[in-house]
Amino acid sequence: FTNSKHTSTRSLYLVPKQRPMTASDESQRSRWNGARNRDRNQARFLIKELVAASLNSTGNDDIIVPIGPAAQDEEEIRSFFRNISMRSSCSFSLKVVAKNHSTLSMPLPARFMSEYKIKTLCTSRFGVAFGEAALKYSKLISRVTLIEYAALVGEYGAITQLLVGGINPCYFHMESLDREQSYTEESITRKRDSVRKLVMKKLVVDYVPRSLVGYIIRSAFAMKMWSFVRADEKTDIACPKCSVSSKKEQLIVFNGSCKHVCCEVCMWESMAKELDNRNQGDVVCCPICGQSSTSTDLEREEREDPFDELSPQERFNLSLSKFEALPQTIAELRKLPKKRKANKAIHSTWNGALKSSIGNSQDVRTDKFMRYVASGFKHHCRACLRDGIDANKTNEYNQTPLHIACWRNHAPLVSMLLEFGADPRIHSNGNVSALNIAKENNYVEIVGILEHYLSNEDSPTVQETLSALMQTPSIATTPVIPPSVHILIPQNDDHIGAGSFFIDNALPQNILQFLDDLFESLPIAPPTEAANKKKKDQKATPCSTRYYFCDSEAYLSSTIAKHIESTLNSADVSQPVEVAMFQQMRFLCYDEVGSALAPHIDLAKVDPIKPGNKRSTHTFILYLRDCEKGGETALLKELSPHGPFASHEVLAMVGVQRGRILLFPHACPHEGKSTLSRPKIILRGEVIIEEKRV
User: Fold this and answer.
1) Where are the residues of the annotated region Disordered (predicted)?
2) Mind listing the pLDDT tens digit for each residue in 169-205?
């Protein structure tokens, strides 16, 4: 066989025989993956702490001083330069960057640049003139950071890895100060410190595309290099923007036709501050006159934007037609022939940088667009609107992007959405309008923008509806029963559910009646994929039907929270508490006999409105119907390792009674017993309960 005409012995040795995977191999691979993920998470945590420390530092804590590396570290430093010159960006993993964070951040001896043929590397990518200038620059300066070296040789992968690792691209040398000037060294140091923090926040922390950040960093260091090389051609000795004197080589000549000169501090400050304002064209502009550094074909296309001459409705139709031309799902997208992507590591404009990241199918782009609107990312939203999106698409709360922008108080996005034809007359679940959201939250600027597009808006607010219900005879004559608190698991109990309790008669009748009317008006939410799979399983226990409501006017949730807080503080509690209820809530209707909820624990959620990224602490359940039999909520001692169908030890059982509020920590295991008297209707949400601040 080895001497046959079509097979050689050489080919047999080149293709090793694959042995089947054994259980030991799988176990070893699992341990290796677990260790790698653990190292990554540890590195992410350490980097996050280092970035937070640099942003919160005061004084001169993070000003880099010219300290050279120790002799024993030179080989390691040389390896970093070698990896960049060999285009080995994978060498700068999170673990490596976290371990060597101080070394990768500080200026290193510039002689390492010339050791790895910087002229050849720069010439191959940017031309002969740039290569010769880079070689001269490496001999003029004494120190250089790794991120500057990566920018000069065009290794954008290493720049991205260093940025993800929390390396600040901006640094200044103290010896560039002119001691004989009116400014004190302390004031200039303070200014440089604030600029470094601004650059760190904008280019490292904020949600800016890495390809755009790479272009900004590359442009900054390229201008710095040319300014050093051509220092003899400059006549200025002071920055016209801040009037601080510097050495000639420290003044940066802008790479544009204007050729204005400014100091390095003002250059970085201008690029960071003006980044959000550059909606179109090159993001790098002159700090003095605002002129862009380049004029590319992409910029010309943006200046000839077809959306500029259209009305809002025409813009909406054009964007919608582009959106409808996309595949509906990512599964359909994968079936299409793959197009070769342009491998461009950096982009000079927002639209160019975002074009490949906004999604190429309708489901992905819609999901990203909703998140961009909620986060207030105006450039990302503009990219979606230009490349195609349904500006009136609704989420499970029947909120359009305009509702979300009003709710989150993003006035620039409200204007942008209206300019692209978003309909301000659409109401979300509960008949909540965008104008009422802005009025009830006292967003004056958004109210003015919406009133320009709306002639009149007469839908009642939640507060007006509750006040009207209070005047109805059936509610006005209902006797008021004082609320009562019942402790289920004491606060000092050694259990994860310690502090669980329920309150009877905590809410007045007008709120309960309003919630009844609200529930009747809400549409049924489409079932999730998990619910669809459960329906196909004939043995699965029937679950609830969901109805979503967002109290974006903030009146209902705050009113319920105040009633809970006043009840708890009037009861015999050791410490006064504060209660805050999240505005997103859902109604669950168990309308089938035997419907139940398997044992589980709930997850905490982050408050999307209030600053501070506070997480919820307790699960909120309000029962809206009486159930004589079944439907109880059971608080469990622990979840059984044998699965949800095993027996669980019950610590407390809460019956279903109209107006009863059940509150327990998220981590407390619980289950919903089978419903026998139907329907069982509850309002489900999240709250934060914490000790009241004095």
Assistant:
1) 1-35
2) 887 754 444 444 444 566 777 888 888 889 988 888 8
- Residue pLDDT, tens place only, 325-354: 999 998 898 888 876 655 567 888 888 889
Q: Is the pLDDT of residue 67 over 60?
A: no
Q: Report d(CA 240, CA 251) in Å as an integer.
A: 10
pLDDT score of 546:
94
**Closest C-alpha among 112, 192, 99 to residue 149:** 112
Q: Partners of 108 in the beta sheet?
A: 144
Question: And the tokens for 56?
Answer: 């919160």
pLDDT confidence band for 24 (50 / 70 / 90): low
Distance CA 247, CA 179 (A): 11
Instruction: Residue count of the chain, please give it.
Output: 694
Tell me which of 222-226, 290-294, 530-534, 572-576 is least confident.
Answer: 530-534
Q: Nearest CA to 594 among 533, 653, 674, 686?
A: 674
Q: pTM score, two decimals?
A: 0.84
**How far is it, in rounded angstroms, from Cα 619 to Cα 616?**
8
CATH 1.25.40.20 boundaries in the chain? 303-459
Confidence check: pLDDT of 277 > 80: yes
Please, where are the H alpha helices in 57-165?
A: 74-85, 94-99, 101-105, 111-115, 118-126, 128-140, 146-153, 156-164
Give whole-number Cα distances, 47 to 145, 276, 675, 693, in Å.
18, 25, 50, 32
**Cα distance between the two ends of the chain:** 89
| Amino acid type, 553 | E
The answer to whether 168 and 204 have CB atoms below 8 angstroms apart is yes
Mean pLDDT of the chain: 83
Counting beta carbons within 10 angstroms of the beta carbon of residue 560, is it exposed (0 to 12), middle (13 to 18) or buried (19 or more)? Answer: buried
**What's the whole-number mean pLDDT along residues 373-392?**
94
Distance of CA 340 to the CA centre of its chain: 29
- How many other C-beta atoms are found inside a 10 Å radius of the C-beta of residue 151? 27
What's residue 337's pLDDT? 84
Which residues make beta-bridge pairs with 675? 630
- Distinct helix (H) and strand (E) counts, the chain: 28, 16
The residues pairing with 690 across neighbouring beta strands, listed in sequence order, are 578
CATH assignment of 484-691? 2.60.120.620
CA distance 196 to 217: 13
Angle at CA 568, nearest 5°, toward 564 and 569?
115
Is residue 293 within 8 Å of 255, Cβ to Cβ?
yes
Where exactly does CATH 2.60.120.620 map onto the chain? 484-691
CB-based contacts of 81, cutoff 8 Å, min separation 6: 108, 112, 113, 115, 116, 146, 149
- Whether CATH 1.20.1300.10 fits 303-459: no
CA 267 to chain centroid:
28
DSSP bridge partners of 671: 634
Place of tokens 């909520």: 633
Alpha helices, H only, 325-433: 330-335, 350-354, 362-375, 378-387, 401-407, 411-419
